[in-house]
Amino acid sequence: MKKLLSLFLISSVVTVYGQKLADFEYVFVPKKFEKEMNKYDLKKLLVKGLEDKKYKVIQEDKENWPEELRQNQCNVARADLLDDSSMFRNKVLLKFSDCNEKTILETKGMSMQKEFELGFPEALAVSMKSVPLSNPSSTINITPVAEKPKEVVQVKAEKVAEKTVAPVVTKAETSSPLATTNKAEVFSNGKLNVQKINMGSGQFILASGNSSAPYAVFTETSKQGVYRVKMENGASALGYMENGNLVIEIPQANDTYQKEVFQKK
Fold first, then answer.
1. Residue 8: helix, strand or coil by DSSP?
2. Do 216 and 236 contact (CB within 8 A), yes or no?
3. How far apart are the C-alpha atoms of 247 and 232, rounded to whole Å?
4. Residue 190 in this model has a pLDDT that exceeds 80
5. Rounded distance, CA 31 to CA 66, Å?
6. From CA 123, how far away is CA 90, in angstroms rounded?
7. CB of 25 within 8 A of CB of 56?
8. N or C: which end of the chain has fewer CB within 10 A?
9. How do residues 129-167 score in pLDDT, each as one tens digit?
C-alpha cells in the first residue's frame, strides 16, 4: 500500500491536444522562464532531457534561427516551464505550444522533497517521463494565424496653457519629523522572542536581542506566503504563514522536519 501511494505521489499528469509533440523535430527553449524556474539548473536539465528524447533544441532568438526554420516557424514547438507548486509540494508544469501559441502537450510533475534545490529538479524529471520520443512527421499541419492590423487612432494635440502655482509650505512641515513610524511586530516560540523587520523586495528578517546576526532571513518565492529561509547557523528551511503565525520547517538529518511556530505577541 505504501509503495502504491508513493507511485501515485510522484506520477505526472498529462494533457494531450490535437497536434502530437512527437511530430516535431525542433523545440525552442527560451532564454528565461518565470522567476523560480530560472534557478537550480532547470533549463540545462530540460535541454538535456529533450535531447535525450531525440529533439533538436534551439535556444537562439528567432532572428538567429537557420533560414529553413525562419521561413517555416510552425515546424518548431516551444517549451515553457512553469512553477505549479502548492504550499507543501514542489510541482512544475511543462508546456509545449505551436507557432500560434496553441497548447500541444502539458505534463505536470511533483516531488516530495521540500527543499527547492532538490524538489524542482525531481519534479521536472517526473514531468519529462511523459514527453514522447521525437518521431518527426514529413509535414506539420499548422498554418500560422495572420496578425490583425492594429488600429491607429490619431489624436489632435492641443496646447494647454498651464498655470504654475507655488506650493505653500508651512513652518510645521519644514521642521517636524515624520508623523508616523512603523510599529515593530514581535513573535515568540515560547523560548525565544524575535522581532520581524521588513527589508523590502519580498524579504524580511527575524532578529533576536541575543545575537547580532539575524535569527532567520525570509525571502519570498513565486508562491504567495511561502518563503525560502536561511537560518542563523546557515541551514536552509521553508517558511510560511499559518493562522497569523510564522512557521519554519527545518530539515533534519533523518529526513524529518523540525517545526518552529512563532506566535505574534
1. helix
2. no
3. 16
4. yes
5. 17
6. 7
7. yes
8. N
9. 999 999 987 667 676 665 555 555 454 444 444 454 545
Identify the pLDDT of residue 154: 53
Residues 6+ apart with CB under 8 A from 73: 62, 65, 99, 144
Q: d(Cα 141, Cα 98) in Å, to the nearest integer? A: 11
Residues in a beta bridge with 230: 217, 236
Quickly list H helices, the chain.
Answer: 2-10, 42-52, 67-71, 116-128, 171-175
Contact 219, 202 (CB under 8 A): yes
Residues, the chain, total? 265
Direct distance between the N- and C-terminal alpha carbons of the chain, in angstroms, rounded to an integer? 44
Coil, helix or strand for 96? strand
What confidence tens digit (pLDDT) does each residue in 39-76 have?
888 999 999 999 999 999 999 988 899 999 998 899 99
Query: For residue 232, how many C-alpha atoms fall within 13 Å in the half-sphere facing its CB?
Result: 10
Distance, in Å, from the CA atom of 69 to the CA atom of 78, rounded to the nearest integer, reads 13
Cell 490583425 belongs to residue: 148
